[in-house]
Amino acid sequence: MLWLQLTVLLLAIGLVSVFSIPLIYLAYGATSVEHGHLLTWLMQFGGGLAIVPLGAAVAWGLWRGGLLFVVVVLQAVWRARRGRRGGGGG
């Protein structure tokens, strides 16, 4: 059940990041330097967290299922990122 605990931990860290955004908006004006720095730091932190489960999935796929699993995971990530950007282009 280690994977479940790790998933809950990553979810909790993500929720702390999400719920801290309104606090930043309340504490600093939208045009202040601190506002920009704190939101940029949160984006860097959240992007860094995404590397952990993706890297674990790729490593596990190489160990268990070979290259096919890794291709499927990377294709799913590519499609998800493409959908977030509006879906244009190839």
Content of β-strand: under 5%
Shape: elongated
- Rg estimate, integer Å: 17 Å
Q: What profile does the largest beta sheet have?
A: none
Fold and architecture overview:
The radius of gyration is 17 Å and the shape is elongated. Helix 1 (2-27) packs antiparallel against helix 2 (33-64) and helix 2 runs antiparallel to helix 3. The chain is an all-alpha fold. The chain has one domain (2-84). The protein has helices at residues 2-27, 33-64, 67-84. Helices cover 84% and strands 0% of the residues.
Short account of what is shown:
This protein has 90 residues and is an all-alpha fold. The chain has helices spanning 2-27, 33-64, 67-84.
Could you outline the blueprint of secondary structure elements for this entry?
Blueprint: H1 2-27, H2 33-64, H3 67-84
Helix pairs in contact: 1-2, 2-3
Provide keyphrases for this structure.
3 helices; mainly alpha; elongated; 90 residues; single chain
